[in-house]
Amino acid sequence: MIQATTSNLHWNYFLALEHDLDIAARYVEFCEQNYEVYSVEFAHLLFAAASEVDVIAKLFCQRLSPDASCRNIDDYRSVLTTKFPNLPETQVLVARYGLTLTPWDSWASSTNPLWWRSYNNVKHERDTFFHEATLKHALNALGALLILTVNHYRHAFVTPGEKPLRLKDTTSKLLPHSILLRLDDDSYHKVLIA
Fold it and tell me: What are phi and psi for residue 60, nearest 5 degrees?
């Protein structure tokens, strides 16, 4: 088995973005009533997370289907939903604020997520679409990144051709753990505190 690298670059990048998101919570309460709040900071988080989704999705698709064309989000959707049919219903919890996200749910109907569309709108036509750099889109982009990053490492931590690690075993190797965004409890080993 290939051991986790000392840096786990993609995991560390996710953690840095999660930390920035956590800081933003000091200024805007994370609740559904504030989902449409937009700001420069939410634009920054949306850009960074969606860009990293693009990087991880391409890397992950190449690992899963080396012969597939993986140039854009539509190609990623084709490969990833074939290999992971439950991906559209995978949830991310923001337990501290009582929020549950399903960032890939639109892939169940073969459309791309709203947060992805907003990322492209704000990136290419910021003057017109800056109001789409919202808390909701930033949260969902980070949630989507968490899902892909953990699943990427399920495969990256083993030799090609070996069975991927269980989610629990993968999350136990990704240290430090995420503190704000989490997968469901079954994705983590239980910790007994005596």
Answer: -65, -45
Domain that holds residue 48: 9-187
- Reading phi first (left if > 0) and then psi (alpha if -120 to 50, else beta), residue 5 is in beta
Which residues, 6+ apart, have CB-to-CB distance to 135 below 8 Å?
24, 28, 30, 34, 35, 36, 37, 38, 42
How confident is the model at residue 193, as a pLDDT? 67
Q: What percent of the chain has pLDDT over 90?
A: 92
Do the domain assignments include residue 1? no
74 vs 191, which has greater pLDDT?
74
Average pLDDT, the chain: 94
Structure letter (DSSP) for residue 166: P
Total tally of structural domains belonging to the chain: 1
Q: Name the amino acid, one letter, at 179.
A: I
Residue positions counted in the chain: 194
Q: What is the mean pLDDT of residues 102-125?
A: 97
57, part of any domain? yes
Question: Could you give the CA distance from residue 32 to residue 52 in angstroms, rounded to a whole number?
Answer: 25
Q: What tokens does 189 get?
A: 């080993």
